[in-house]
Amino acid sequence: MSSLYLIRHGQAGLRQHYDTLSALGREQSYLLGRHLAARKVCFDAVYAGGLERQRQTAAEVCRAYREAGLELPPPIHDPHWSEFDLTAVFEELAPVMCAEDPEFHRLHTELLDRLADDQAAEHRSWTHCDTLVMRAWMEGRYPTRAESWLEFHTRVCGALETLAGRRSGETVAVFTSAMPIAIWLGMALGVHNGQLMRVAGVMYNSALTTMRLHERDLTLFTFNGVAHLDEPRLRTFR
Predict the structure, then answer these.
(1) SS3 for 168?
(2) Model-wide pTM > 0.85
(3) Domain carrying residue 206
(4) How many CA atoms lie within 13 Å of 48's alpha carbon, on the beta-carbon side?
(5) In terms of Cα–Cα distance, which of 52, 26, 36 is closest to 227?
(6) Is the Cβ–Cβ distance between 56 and 84 less than 8 Å?
């Protein structure tokens, strides 16, 4: 049996620069590292998805460990753990949905107008427009050149083969994103598709989810832990 620590990245940038951590995101990630190092949590392996915000989160945790006099193994970059490309999905599906649905066209136009302001709340929140696009993508309602939901789900689940091949008794950290963690939670609990979006939507930045893996069987132990974020300003969702 192996212990898995699934770590969501810290707060990212604004929507047009989402694949990088904000200053707050770096702070959240560093605090997580301090929290784990103070408890002498040692990892036999560290994995990170291929996205910059995931790697930056791992780097901040590693920095906190070094400052505590501890070392983590160098992160292994594994694209199985990368998040889907929401921007690509929007670029393909939104024009089709606008042409079909005047109400969606109104919502989408309003969203774009709001995002022109860097201070707009929509940069840090999940909107109804986002939900409608996600549902259409997950249901496969329209053909797309971007990675499909089925392709994405299959890719993320494929990480199981890598981790199941490690030695029993190891403790492994994985730096990833909300939807891959939701998919793995779904594998553990038998939760699928539409419900996964709700799971991902309540996940805090830099939150910790722990599981046990035994012969490809997953058991959930904790979900969405943020004991390292002891101030309300530190707890963000996006």
Answers:
(1) coil
(2) yes
(3) 2-84+148-234
(4) 20
(5) 36
(6) no
Q: Which residues are paired to 48 by β-bridges?
A: 77, 175
Kindly tell me the sign of the dihedral angle through the C-alpha atoms of 174, 179, 184, 189.
positive
Please give the Cα distance from 21 to 9 (Å, whole number). 8
- The Cα 67–Cα 55 span in angstroms is 18
Whether residues 123 and 171 fall in one domain: no
In DSSP terms, 221 is beta-bridged to none
Q: How far apart are CA 3 and CA 86, in angstroms?
A: 30
Flag whether 178 is in a domain: yes
**Predicted local distance difference test score (pLDDT) of residue 115:** 87
- Helices marked H in the chain: 23-38, 52-67, 86-100, 102-115, 128-138, 149-157, 159-164, 178-189, 194-201
For residue 11, the Cα-to-chain-centroid distance in whole angstroms is 10
- Do 128 and 22 reside in the same domain of the chain? no
Same domain, 80 and 93: no
Say what angle helices 194-201 and 178-189 make with each other, to 10 degrees: 120
Are 78 and 16 contained in the same domain? yes
Cβ atoms 81, 6 nearer than 8 A: no
The residue behind tokens 């393909």 is 92
Residue pLDDT, tens place only, 173-225:
999 999 999 999 999 999 887 789 889 999 999 999 999 999 889 999 999 99
Show the CA angle centred on residue 51, arms to residues 147 and 25, nearest 5°: 125
One domain, residues 184 and 198: yes
